[in-house]
Task: structure prediction
Amino acid sequence: MYQHILVPVDLAHLNKMAKTLNTAIDMAKHYHATLCYITVTNSTPGAAAHNPKELASKLQEFAEEQGKSHGIQTDAKVLESVDTAVELDDKLLKAIKETGTDLVVMASHPPGLGDALHLLRSNAAEIVRHSNISVFVVR
Result:
């Protein structure tokens, strides 16, 4: 049913993504699908790496480790952005089309006051709204 699953990740926050990562791995195993870990980054240093090249290396290493330890096919993709806060959704939507993704498994933040006051926007909701494929949002 699914052949290529895309999972947006932030290597600096993997400890908060266990449920999402486990869900994606479980689905990849079930459907014998390739799991592609993707991240969107600025060119400036961040918590996970000093530059996009270093981040790409770390993400590839993470993907390979996950593939070996769970017996699944994995891939990794780092997209550079001038401003991730503004471009994240568009970058992910473009990657969905370019990679032939047929399922996205992504984390959501728990709703809070910022959501009720419409101060925060949901990346997952944007992907659901503007994508033609299935999106599994994990909370």
The mean pLDDT is 90. The first strand starts at residue 4 and ends at 8. Residues 4-138 form a domain with the Rossmann fold fold (CATH 3.40.50.620). The beta strands are 4-8, 34-42, 73-81, 103-107, 134-138.
